[in-house]
Amino acid sequence: MSDTNRGTDVPSSDPAADAAAIFDLLIGLVRAQVLRGIAALHIADHLSDGAMMAEEVAKREGSHPQATYRLMRAASSIGLLSYEGDRRFSLTGRGRLLRSGVPGSMRSLVLAQTGQALWQSWAHFSEAVRAGGAQTKKALGMEIFEYYSKPENSEEAALFAQAMGNLSGLVTQGAVAALSTAGVSTVVDVGGSNGDFVLALMEADPELRGQVLDLPHVVESARGEADKRGLSGRLSAVGGDFFVEVPPADLYLVKTILHDWDDDQCTTILRNCRSAVNEGGRALVVEMVVGEIGKPDLATLSDMAMLTSTNGMERDLDEFDALFAASGWRRSKTYPVGNGYFGMEVDAV
Ligand SMILES: C[S@@+](CC[C@H](N)C(=O)[O-])C[C@H]1O[C@@H](n2cnc3c(N)ncnc32)[C@H](O)[C@@H]1O
Predict the structure, then answer these.
(1) What is the CATH number assigned to the segment(s) 15-96?
(2) How far apart are CA 178 and CA 253, in angstroms?
């Protein structure tokens, strides 16, 4: 089955080809679970030192030999593993990114996206469309960030924070390269999770002092990350609520936050930044931006994920500008930062 033809670029009138295309789209759910299997059963980790027979991997992992072989065979059909013959497999470049704890790893992102909270929410997707909002209360008994804040879900919450770090890896390099920090001494990463973004900025500019504001159960991971990078002397992490108050700063980083919330909630977050910003300060909002309708657009697909599990949405530039205008900001610069994400710098008006 081809890996292509999944976009809108196939104006086919051949019913057989169209049926095959639909089947190919549908099998995406299996692709996601094969990714999960390779990550969750540490198969990428077991193969880090070279090719191995499926049975040997199964023995190390304590999994079923034949089922493990079938999973590895499927993974080799979608480019995660390479088949070396005699039931032996090795990692491809993509497969290597499913190892744990390596630079650029996507493992936590895969596990969080296919994990309990988000996967269960997808089961209620049609209802979310009918009702016009996420059904996480039905799926999980509560809103998503409340779910992650419960002590019994702390492992999943930690995974989600690491997943945000994995996702950050897709855009931080581009954002750090594009953003000038001249004249900036204090930066607050609003909802900064494990602080990946602000820490990358601090590595690029040794004069910066950074702060992560996030929910109390999350900020410990930012402290740990700063320690790991030898930056704890310049980073503080504050547990708080961005709907109530944000600390003063010359620069706010608001990365993949607004897409979690409705317009009124976004306006509150941005207004809180506007009220606290130091004279001459600004904010950098990083989000996917919805482009031309009808073209292949990751932002519109990510928007479905937002509809399923949050109160938010992905927005187009006009919608962002309306939020900025309503909260005392004006967009001054916009640039792509990689993988469908854009940086939008806003100045106080
Ligand atoms: C989608 S994640 C984005 C994390 C990070 N900015 C990034 O791009 O990797 C949203 C973050 O907002 C945090 N958050 C949710 N509600 C919050 C609140 N009321 N106050 C502060 N942080 C909050 C979550 O804990 C989570 O870390």
Answers:
(1) 1.10.10.10
(2) 13
Q: Could you list the active site residues?
A: 259
| Domain boundaries 162-348, corresponding CATH code | 3.40.50.150
- d(CA 147, ligand 1 centre) in Å: 13
Three-class HEC string of 75-107: HHHCCCEEEEECCEEEECHHHHCCCCCCCCCCH
CB 85 within 8 A of CB 276: no
pLDDT digits (tens, 9 = 90+) for 84-124: 999 999 999 999 999 998 988 999 999 999 999 999 999 99
Q: 332, 347 in Cβ contact below 8 A?
A: yes
Amino acid letter, residue 101: G
Token pair belonging to 323: 């939020």
Q: Which atom of ligand 1 is nearest to the CA of 168?
A: 9
Output the average pLDDT for the chain: 94
In this structure, what are the phi and psi dihedrals at residue 341, rounded to the nearest 5 degrees? -95, 150
Residues having CB closer than 6 A to ligand 1 are 145, 164, 167-168, 191-193, 196, 213-215, 218, 241-243, 255-257, 260
In the chain, domain spans = 15-96, 162-348
pLDDT of 234 above 90: yes
**Mean pLDDT across 237-245:** 97
